[in-house]
TrEMBL record:
Region described as Disordered: 95-115
InterPro entries xrefs: Peptidase_aspartic_dom_sf (IPR021109), RTL1-rel (IPR032567)
Pfam family, one: RVP_2
Gene3D superfamilies: Acid Proteases
Superkingdom of this protein's organism: Eukaryota
Lineage: Eukaryota, Metazoa, Chordata, Craniata, Vertebrata
Protein name per Swiss-Prot or TrEMBL: Uncharacterized protein
SUPFAM superfamilies: Acid proteases
Amino acid sequence: MIDSGAAGDFLDLSLAKKLGIPTQILSYPQAVTALDGRPLEPGRVTEATQSLRLTILQHQQEEIFYLIDSPEFPVILGHPWLHRHNPRIDCIHADDSLEKNHNQQTDSHNEKQES
């Protein structure tokens, strides 16, 4: 799941255990809350994965995920991931691409110059 409101990149704790994904204890536990302010389970994130190779389409990158209880959405790519990769997502045509949308940036730059 891609969630622009998520402050981190998350992986379901039970899925990580099931797949035998190596984890590490965080030096400082992080509080995790929903948009309405209520704490998400387990309330504090105490573990993260070690660096994992994530493959989406033909794009590969190394990612670290915070571990939370989220069986309905076992992988959440949040704002940090979106900021690093800036994917092009077309919800109307159900098209996505991890190629950065440089045309959009160029078009908006050209519009500013024409004004």
